[in-house]
Amino acid sequence: MDASNEMARRSFFERGTQFLGLLIAGGMGIPALMYLLRGANSVAPGGFVDAADLGAMKTRVPEEVSFQRVRKDGWKLLTEKSTAWVVKLSDTDVVAYTPQCTHLGCAYRYEESKNEFVCPCHSTNFSIEGKVLGGPAPRDLDRYPVKVQGTRLLIGTIESAKPTEGQKKA
Ligand code: FES
To answer: From the alpha carbon of 135, which atom of ligand 1 is closest?
Structure first.
């Protein structure tokens, strides 16, 4: 093999090695760069999730439903189970209450005999419209925003109810 062929061969291997280096750097660097640029804003907060079939619900009979929501915690995406008390007040009016009492956050339940929600911790009663009927809770039940698509109920992220008149705490 003469000297010019040896030089061409070395040059070919040098270029090949440089090309492979670029390929590896690009293969690792571009996804990492996209992750860093998109990561913090890639999940829109407040998204609605499919939670229940309204066709199977009776009017004015509360039903506890479970659904899953993806939440962003720093760079991590966490799937969390949530629940809501859903009431189909009429064919056109559906509400979904968060499952915590607005006094100190206990889980309340539906009491069919009274047609009310009852919190066992300090005895607050709420109507199925979410209003405080009695007890220490400072405001009505908190509601999730909802959307209806056909017979499906979509639930968004929490909204707080306004303090009830006469029950605002100083
Ligand atoms: S936590 Fe429900 S009444 Fe106190």
So the answer is: 3
